[in-house]
Amino acid sequence: MSHWIIVPVVLPAMLAPFIVLALRRDLLLQRVFSVAGTGALLLVAAALAARAAAGGIEVYALGDWPAPFGIVLVLDRLSALMVLLTALLALAVVVYAVGSGWDARGRHFHALFQFQLMGVCGAFLTGDIFNLFVFFEVLLIASYGLMIHSGGERRLRAGVQYVLFNLAGSTLFLFGLGTIYGLTGTLNMADLAVRVAALPAGDHGLVRVAAVLLLLVFAIKAAQVPLHFWLPGTYAAAPAPVAALFAILTKVGAYAILRVFTLVFGPAAVTGALIADVLMPAALVTAALGTIGVLGARQAGMLAAFAAIASMGTLLVAFALFTPAGTAAGLYYLLHSTFATAALFLVVDLVESRRPAGGGIEVAAPMVQSGLVAWLYFAAAIAMVGMPPLSGFVGKLLVLDAARLPGPMVAVWAVVLATSLVALVGFARAGSVLFWKAHEGGRATPPSPAGLPTAAPVAATLALIGALAVLTVLAGPITGYLEATAAQLYAPQQYIEAVLAPAPAAGGQ
Fold it and tell me: Which of 142, 152, 166, 227 could cross-link to 116 by cystine, CB 3.0-4.6 Å?
């Protein structure tokens, strides 16, 4: 049993209280430890991803209690990929927060940031559905603290709405867990996969109820229509680094849908095609409404928030196919949309900090460093729209190719192509107002604000855009890894046997 599997959870969990208790009066040391800890998390995540790439599944039994009686963490291709994605995003975000000074505008930013990483990594690694709920709650607590960082009435109001909506989701989660436990007597996901498939026909109705409850919970986390109302105001009001980090939170919901409904309620399970029949139309509507929001946005923050909703719609369309090809395409688009959404939120902050009119999409005097910021906006916009040469184009092509099936092909192709066109118009309209029309009429560029940070925030934003370029250049090998990941998901017997096999004696590695 390798103890490295638990490091992505334990490292931020230990670093966060250390920052609060020992470094709360020294911002410089908080920054050093937070950046160093996030960098160490990235190294561990990369090593775990390399181990998982061999195709094996490793299990860490906490307290050396075997499943299904004890709590287990499971490292497979999917969980390793998601932890690595989290670490890459987190490093760019924390560098931006330090370089822009956002971390100094309130208390305990870095401690909350580390607690957030603990919750995200735990959700990806856990093999127990109750502990998935626990890590969801850790996410909620930490994200609320980050959401209201630096204060303000607008931020507090959005934060309260965010918490209330997610608490409703938590209540539904408990109802679903109670129903499942009452039927099966277990909450270990591998054990559930065995027991749900063996339930008598008379219990199938309750299983479907539990599955729908869990789908509603995960749809809230993934901001899927009609449960998306919390996202636009929350993300638009959040501090820029926080909104960029939140790009991974919606992916936690998408991950949970993929994990639970391929393992516990798989294609051969008693739920049949119920989940796919519900998920596909909701995903198509999510993509459409998110894109309409992009077209009608009057604030740059709202533009980015609705773009995040639209990208989640496209992602869930691929997952709703519930085929290995669709899942591989969805995972590629998940990687792309996480980096692209985070980059867009950081670009919005660069705009707001340099423009006299802030983030309003209206004609005003040219901003400081207009050319640099315009280039970053252009790169983030074409990534979100899905235009070449960045990875959004590849991702959408993969989704369209995976949807070449008799049933969903027409609807998926129509929505994906139409939303791409509408999003292009929306981003072009906003960009022309923010950058092009600002130079009409001979308006003078205002002097640069004193102490305006440039190097670290711009470098962090460029790193995220560079990640999109890497996804494009290495699309072949990355897609190969994702296809192997999808194949592993749709052949869950290896996962079940790895988790439920007798645990060997603990030994450090």
Answer: 142
What angle, 0 to 180 degrees and rounded to 10, lies between the N-to-C axes of helices 370-385 and 324-354?
160
The DSSP annotation for 399-414 comes to HHHHT-STTTHHHHHH
Amino acid at 478: I
- pLDDT > 70? residue 219: yes
Cβ atoms within 10 Å of 454's Cβ, excluding its own: 15
DSSP 118-140: HHHHHHHHB-BHHHHHHHHHHHH
**DSSP structure string for 330-377:** HHHHHHHHHHHHHHHHHHHHHHHHH-TTTTB-S--SPPTTHHHHHHHH
Q: How far apart are CA 197 and CA 243, in angstroms?
A: 40
pTM for the whole structure = 0.93
* pLDDT band of 445, cuts 50, 70, 90: low
| Contact call for residues 196 and 265 (beta carbons, < 8 A) | yes
pLDDT at 444: 55
One-letter amino acid identity for 112? L
Determine how many CB atoms are found less than 10 A away from the CB of residue 425. Answer: 13
Structural contact between residues 129 and 482, judged by C-beta atoms closer than 8 angstroms = no
What would the pLDDT profile of 78-106 be if each residue is shown by its tens digit?
A: 999 999 999 999 999 999 999 998 999 88
CB 478 within 8 A of CB 471: yes
Q: Is 472 left (phi over 0), alpha (psi -120 to 50) or beta?
A: alpha
Cα-atom radius of gyration of the chain, to the nearest Å?
Answer: 22
Query: Which residue is listed with tokens 């994906």?
Result: 416
CB neighbours of 231 closer than 8 A, spacing ≥ 6? 223, 250, 305, 308, 309
DSSP secondary structure, 74-111, as one string: EE-HHHHHHHHHHHHHHHHHHHHHHHHTGGGSSSSHHH
> What is the rounded distance in angstroms from the CA atom of residue 433 to the CA atom of residue 203?
58
Q: State the average pLDDT for the chain.
A: 89
Residue 431, class by beta-carbon neighbours within 10 Å (0-12 exposed, 13-18 middle, 19+ buried)? Answer: middle
The string of pLDDT tens digits covering residues 160-199 is 888 888 888 899 999 999 999 999 999 999 999 999 888 8
Spatial distance between the Cα atoms of 377 and 375, rounded to a whole number of angstroms:
5
